[in-house]
Structures are given as structure tokens and as C-alpha cells.
Design a protein that fits this description.
31% of the residues lie in helices and 22% in strands. It is built from seven helices and nine strands, in the order αβββαββαααβαβββα. The strands form two sheets. It has a six-stranded mixed β-sheet with strand order 5-6-7-3-8-9, with helices on both faces. A three-stranded antiparallel β-sheet has the order 2-1-4, with helices on one face. Helix 4 packs across helix 5 and helix 5 packs parallel to helix 6. The relative contact order is 0.19. The structure holds adenosine-5'-triphosphate (ATP) and magnesium ion. The site of adenosine-5'-triphosphate (ATP) has 12 residues, from helix 2.
Length: 239
């Protein structure tokens, strides 16, 4: 291996997520990401705050590979799963178990599928609910089922786009604590990127980043960031 090849190999992180000068412009001409560089240090619950239109959802589409950057490089060797504000947009089948079946790896035997469904439901606090009809679930339970779907697909990177925006305080707390637990479990802890407009949620993050005009700042302890945002007019992150 030449020195250059060796150096190039060393520069690519062995695991995780890193953006290098990534830019993206929508076909309409909207520049959503502008030379955006950041890296996520490893498993944990990392939150992103930023004004409407600052590029947060576009960032998630780029990470999950739904769209490709116009410029720059994305290194990601984690398996992403997207979760949106409204779980009704991603739950497709009539019962919890049948919905999870869709996400399981295809090579599993029927026995293994049944077991995996039970394990995934247990991991999100929906134990024993495989045959529950979806329409009987509360909003918070639906959001946790969407999370179980991500686990069933063996995702290692959760991309959560304001997952608690439609939930009441108790359901919000349950979803938050479920994700936090998954990010700190001793075996295969997950990496979660969580977009929020609720500053109180920052208390639960391992670190947080402000997104501003299509660029992410540096990862900060969430307490520090919360203090900073509180001092801005109307308590928000600038666009
Ligand atoms: N599908 C699309 N086609 C064209 N432009 C888009 C599309 N999606 C987003 N944009 C534009 O890209 C920019 C960033 O939008 P994005 O949805 O990523 O922001 P956001 O930070 O997620 O905002 P919000 O907090 O309101 O969800 C905006 O100017 C928006 O109009
Ligand atoms: Mg958005």
C-alpha cells in the first residue's frame, strides 16, 4: 500500500457518521445544505436544534441516502432508520406484529421472526402486543412501534425528525426514555440523531448541535447549548 493510500484509509472513520463539506441544492434552486461538516463521536443520544427551514430534514434525507449531495462526502457505515413526527405515515399493516414483519431481515425462519417480534416489542415497552390492532394504539404507542420497526430492521442509526411533536407530555417522556435506553444499552448501543424544537428535551441529550443556514455547528454539551439558545430572541436557533 502506498503512503497516499494508507493516509486515505486512515482518514475514513472505522465506524460512525461524518460529513465533509457537504452541499445540497433542491431542483427548485433552494440551497438547503452549504458546505456542511460534522462528525458524530459514537453511540448516544445527540440532538439537533434549528429554525424552520434551516435544513434539518434535508440533512436526514442525505444521511439515509434518499438524496445525494451535489458536493462533498458523506461517510456512514451505520444502518439508518428514519422516524417522523406522525407515526401514521410509516405504520402500514393492521397489527403491531404484522407491521414489524415487514422490517425483519428476509432470511429468518418463522420461529426466529416470532421471537424477534417479541424482543423488538419488549425493547420499546410494548411487550405482548403483537396481535394488537394498530388503530387501538395511542399516539405514543404508535411512535414506539415505529421505533420497534427500526430495531426489527437492525438499524444502528436512528434519525428522529421531531418524533414527539404530536405527543402529550407523558407520551413524550416515554418515547424519550425509550430512545435514551436504547442508546445506552450495554450490548450494541444505538446512535440517535434527534431533531427537536423543544428545548426541555435537550436535558436528556448526550450532546447537541445547532443547525443554522444549512450548516451544523460543533457538538456541545446540551446544558451549554440550552443556556446559549435561551439568550437568543424568542429562545430559538437562528436560521
Ligand atoms: N422536497 C423539497 N423540494 C424543494 N425544496 C425543499 C424540499 N424540501 C425542503 N426544501 C427546502 O429546503 C430548505 C430546508 O428545508 P428543510 O425541510 O430541510 O428544513 P427543516 O430545518 O427541516 O425545517 P422545519 O423545522 O420546518 O422542519 C427550505 O428552504 C425548504 O423550502
Ligand atoms: Mg424538518
Amino acid at each position: 500500500m502506498t503512503i497516499q493510500e494508507n493516509k486515505a484509509k486512515k482518514d475514513i472513520p472505522k465506524s460512525g457518521l461524518r460529513f465533509e463539506k457537504v452541499s445540497f441544492t433542491w431542483p427548485s434552486g433552494e440551497k438547503a445544505l452549504n458546505k456542511c461538516s460534522f462528525s458524530i463521536p459514537g453511540p448516544g443520544l445527540w440532538m439537533i436544534v434549528g429554525k424552520n427551514g434551516s435544513g434539518k430534514s434535508t440533512l436526514f434525507r442525505l444521511i439515509s441516502g434518499l438524496i445525494q449531495p451535489n458536493e462533498g462526502t458523506i461517510y456512514c457505515d451505520l444502518k439508518p432508520a428514519l422516524m417522523f413526527q406522525n407515526p401514521d405515515h410509516q405504520i402500514l399493516l393492521p397489527t403491531c406484529g404484522s407491521d414489524l414483519l415487514l422490517n425483519l431481515p428476509k432470511q429468518l425462519t418463522p420461529q426466529q421472526r416470532k421471537l424477534q417480534i417479541q424482543v423488538c416489542l419488549k425493547n420499546v415497552g410494548l411487550e405482548g402486543m403483537a396481535s394488537r390492532p394498530i388503530h387501538t394504539l395511542s399516539g405514543g404507542q404508535k411512535q414506539r412501534l415505529a421505533l420497534a420497526g427500526a430495531l426489527a430492521s437492525e438499524a444502528s442509526l436512528l434519525l428522529l425528525d421531531e418524533p414527539t411533536a404530536l405527543l402529550d407530555p407523558l407520551s413524550q417522556k416515554n418515547v424519550l426514555s425509550t430512545v435514551k435506553k436504547l442508546c445506552h444499552r450495554p450490548n450494541s448501543p444505538l446512535t440517535a440523531l434527534w431533531i427537536t424544537h423543544r428545548l426541555a428535551e435537550l436535558n436528556h441529550a448526550d450532546g447537541a448541535i445547532v443547525m443554522k443556514k444549512g450548516c451544523l455547528g460543533s457538538l456541545k454539551p446540551s446544558f451549554e447549548l440550552k443556556q446559549l439558545l435561551k439568550r437568543l430572541p424568542r429562545g430559538g436557533a437562528e436560521r
